[in-house]
């Protein structure tokens, strides 16, 4: 992630949008359901004023964050156990490998059947899917922490809790953060998908409903908002994590 | 002195026992398990380190120097024999004997400032004011006051190793164990740190056992050098340089005692090669 404002990086998409607009106005592109960017902006304004766009955005954002938080808590516990205990790893790694490679989207219909078309169903599947990369990240991060730290811990007679909290987890933090980014992205994907397939709320539902209503301009508004939400969550949460966890500021590349 | 019940290893004469013993090993043996079979590493090592003495340990790589140091620090327990600190057996780490590891990059916490790295061993045991005072003293002794708020990786290798030494000094130990402390540093930095160590020892009077692969360093820093050799290893030779404590870097290197001690160690380490 670059910290400075990247003017050159912004120029490319702006040019693409301008080209898109021009090609449609010049009738070079004539797909029935491909609206011009200006039409999407108009639809967006309309939805914002009368269509509950903000509510849908907040719903999706809230569920994504809730699922991610639940996943993080569970994954931190499970990943720590797997990373610290060879026995726990020996008995569980095979199951973890099977469970994490199962595409979580396959469980969306299952969750909808069990919990109904509810926020609970969304949260459940998204948390499940988002947990795995973090489990792997935490366990790998702990295993990759320098063994020397354990000698240091023995030398200074640190308690086992302190070894984990003050030495090993901070040492694992960069890998954990990388996994947390993946996990946040996955949480958003699964939440939007569940909304599209089953629950009549949120940005996903907006995409699906406007597709069936043959309102491509409104559909695009929801699609773009999903993209903006993903980028926004990353942009807000990662610097916050960097500020909160000192070991992420250590600044070395590897 | 107790311990005459144990047969002394072949070569060495008794160390100069002007100072009362601080650290002793009595007939200590250790083996590790490699590929399902026990491999003896140290065999019946008995040695005494006097209060305030500086002892160097040399030997070819893989002879078990680090194993010996881990035993002296209570980080490792011997299979047989025992280790005594001021006459009392101990087999777990204590504040009174602190190890400085070779790999400062792994042994320091890169996310903690120098100050908080140094505080690691005392921060939960002493009051805030006393921690601050002890840390300040350790930083002053290692000339790191100006870097107290830096992160370790912002410092040079020599300074990082001084942070580790400060982290040991803050415990106010009676014995400092150093595992090839200056091995990863350039010659200039190494020379400066050797003199720093000698000065610190003179100021506080702690006992030092250090491992080195550098014969010159062993003779220059130590009062007495032990050569570890054989598999399993024993102390095969002891060399006492007899150099005065107040050492000058340039004069010492030309002193007859320095040259003789250095020659004796070199003979022992490399002499038997064809």
What is the topology?
The complex is a heterodimer of chains A (254) and B (274).
Chain A: H1 7-25, H2 37-50, H3 53-84, H4 86-101, H5 108-115, H6 119-144, H7 148-155, H8 160-197, H9 202-212, H10 216-244
Chain B: E1 21-34, E2 37-50, E3 54-58, H1 65-72, E4 80-85, E5 88-89, E6 97-100, H2 104-107, H3 114-118, H4 128-141, H5 157-169, E7 175-179, H6 187-204, E8 207-211, H7 215-221, E9 224-229, E10 234-240, H8 249-254, H9 256-270
Parallel strand pairs in B: 3-8, 3-9, 6-7, 7-8
Antiparallel strand pairs in B: 1-2, 1-4, 4-5, 9-10
Helix pairs in contact in B: 4-5, 7-9
Write a structural description.
The complex is a heterodimer of chains A (254) and B (274). Chain A is elongated and about 75 Å long. Chain A has 254 residues and is mainly alpha-helical. The two termini of chain A are 16 Å apart. Chain A contains ten helices and no strands. Chain B is an alpha/beta fold. Helices cover 33% and strands 25% of the residues of chain B. Chain B is built from nine helices and ten strands. Chain B has helices spanning 65-72, 104-107, 114-118, 128-141, 157-169, 187-204, 215-221, 249-254, 256-270; strands at 21-34, 37-50, 54-58, 80-85, 88-89, 97-100, 175-179, 207-211, 224-229, 234-240. In chain B, the strands form two sheets. In chain B, strands 6-7-8-3-9-10 form a six-stranded mixed β-sheet, sandwiched between helices. A four-stranded antiparallel β-sheet of chain B has the order 2-1-4-5, covered by helices on one side. In chain B, helix 4 packs across helix 5 and helix 7 (215-221) crosses helix 9 (256-270). The longest helix of chain B has 18 residues, at 187-204. The termini of chain B are far apart. The model of chain B is unreliable at 1-16 (pLDDT under 50). Classes of the chains: A mainly alpha (254), B alpha/beta (274). Chain A: It is found in: Cell membrane. Chain A: This is ABC transporter permease subunit.
